[in-house]
Amino acid sequence: SASNEDALTDQSRQSFAKGITARLVMALLIVLWVSPNIFIYVQLVTPIPIPKQPDDNSGWESLTSAGIEAETSPYIDLLERGVAPTQTELTEAVNALSPVYVLLDLGLNNPIKVPIDYTEIFVFGEDFHNQQAIVKALKIRGRLAEEEERFGDAADCYLQAIRLGFAARHGGYVLQQIGGSAVASSGMAAAYRLRNFVPIPESVRIIDALSNVRPDLESVEVILHRERIGGQRNVGWPGHLAQILDELREEPESAMAASVLFERRNQELTELRLLQLEFAVRAFRLEKGRLPQSLTELVPKYLSAIPADPFSANHDPLKYLLTENGYRLYSVSKDGVDDRGEMSTWEGQLSDLGDFQLEIRYYDE
Fold first, then answer.
1. What is the pLDDT of residues 119-142, one digit of tens each?
2. Cα–Cα dist 106/269, whole Å
C-alpha cells in the first residue's frame, strides 16, 4: 500500500542519513588521528637549517692556541703544588708563559665565536680545559704582580679572565655557556680579593673596566634554538622526535634548561655588578676616610649610575646597608625579597631564600 511504501522510504532515508553521519564521524576521527602524525612527519623531514659559520673567527683560533700553549706548559700547575712559589719561580713561569698572554690579547681583540659542527655529537671538555689553563696562567702572572705590590696590574690579569669567560661562550651550546660563566666567576673571585689593596686611581680604572665588560650575551632563546639544531642534526630523526614529544610534556626539559640559564645569567651579572660596587665603595672610603651613607654618593665620580639588581622584578638598584662593623652590599636574589643582606652559607648554588653577597659567595675561593 501507499502508506507502507512511505514508511519504507522514511526508513531508507533515516538509514542513509545514519550511514552518512557514521562515515563523516569516522572520517573526522581519521583526520584527527592522522593530522598530528602528518604534522610530526613534516617536522621530522624538515629539520632546522644549519647556520652559516663566520668567515673570520681569528679570535677563537688565538684563544685555542693560547689554551694549548698553557696546558702543555710545565709551569701551569705552579700555584697548585702545595708549596707557595718564590718570586723567582713566579718570574720564571711568567716569562715562559708569555706566548699565552700574547695569544690571549690577540684573541680577546678579534672576532670570537664557538665553532660548532652540527653533524657531530658535542662532547664538553676540551675547550673548557683550555680556558681553565689560560686562567691558571693569568693567576700566575697576577700572583707575581701581587708579590711585587703591583695590585692594579694583578687586577688587570683577573679582568682578562673575566673577559675570557664572557667572550669564549659566544655561539656555543648550553654547557659552553655554563663553562664560560665558571671561568668569569673565577676571575671575579680573584679580583674581589684585591679590593682592599688597590690605590684610588687604579680602583677608578678597574671600576671603569668592569662597567665596560658589557657582556654581549645571546638571548636564552637563541642558545636553546642552537641546542635544538644540534639535537636534530647530530642524532637524526630520533633526536628530533624526542624534541617534539618533549614539547608535549607539562614540564619540558627545554623549559628547565631555560630556567637554569636565566638563573645562572642573573647570578653572574649580579656578581659582576657587586664587584664594581665593592671597588667603588673602597675607593670612596680611601679618599674620604669614611663609608658612603648611600650608594648615591658614588655617583658620578666612581659610577655613572647605581647598577640595577638583575634579580629585582622592578630593576631596583643593588642594596647597600651600613652595619656596626662596616657595610653590606647585596642582591635580593632568587626570591626577590630584601632580607637586609642575610644569606645562608654558599653551597655551590643560589639558595631559594635569603639574599646574595660576594663575601659569602667567595668565602672559600
1. 777 776 788 899 999 999 999 999
2. 25
Show Cβ contacts of residue 211 under 8 Å, excluding neighbours closer than 6 positions: 276, 303, 304
Over its C-alpha atoms, the chain yields an Rg (Å, rounded) of 30
What span, in angstroms and rounded, lies between the C-alpha atoms of 135 and 124? 18
Contact, 310 vs 336, CB < 8 A?
A: no
As given in the structure block, the three cell numbers for residue 106 are 690577540
> What is the Cα 250 distance to its own chain's centre?
26
Q: How far is CA 343 from the centre of its chain?
A: 23
CA distance 292 to 258: 38
Q: How confident is the model at residue 162 (pLDDT cuts 50, 70, 90)?
A: very high
Which long-range CB contacts under 8 A does 280-286 form with residues at least 24 apart? Answer: 280/203, 280/207, 281/320, 281/327, 281/329, 282/195, 282/196, 282/198, 282/203, 283/200, 283/203, 283/204, 283/207, 286/199, 286/200, 286/203
CA angle (300 as vertex; 323, 304 as ends), nearest 5: 100
Whether 63 and 113 have beta carbons less than 8 Å apart is answered as no
Q: What is the mean pLDDT of residues 81-94?
A: 94
Q: Are 282 and 206 in contact (CB under 8 A)?
A: no
Q: What is the pLDDT of residues 48-59, one digit of tens each?
A: 777 887 778 899
Task: Record the cell numbers describing residue 281, joined without a space.
Answer: 665603595
Instruction: End-to-end CA distance of the chain: give it in Å, rounded.
Output: 104
Task: Tell me if the bond preceding 317 is cis, omega within 30° of 0.
Answer: no
The C-alpha angle 217, 219, 223, rounded to 5 degrees, equals 100
